[in-house]
Amino acid sequence: MDNNLNNIFKKAIYIPENRLSNDILLAISDKDRKNAHIKLWVNSTIGVFSFVGFFPAFKLLLSDFAQSGFYQYLSLVFSDGHITSYWKEIILSITESIPMISLTLSLALVFIFILSLRFIARNIRVRPSLLAV
Hints:
Elements: H1 2-12, H2 20-68, H3 70-79, H4 87-96, H5 100-126
């Protein structure tokens, strides 16, 4: 029985062509290079949009700070000498006047921009040939 199995296994051994492994390796590297190009372009596009979108968001943040009275409450901290008696109310007023939506939007755009730059830098560092398209 062992002899029969050995003969069957010897006959069943597949001997690939000489170029087959090279062709498979080239196909894998081509697919990997295409995926790297796609990731580079997607991250670049996201980075550009977040950078461009930051300026209107920052302008909105500044106008929301001005409309909310944040600067007036903050100026009370530095102008009034008797802040020790009502410091809790001042701090609560300052925190309530912070425009959270505009601040969150601006910080999210900055975070997305920095994250996309990180992905782009890592992608280029791993595959320097991406720059020579």
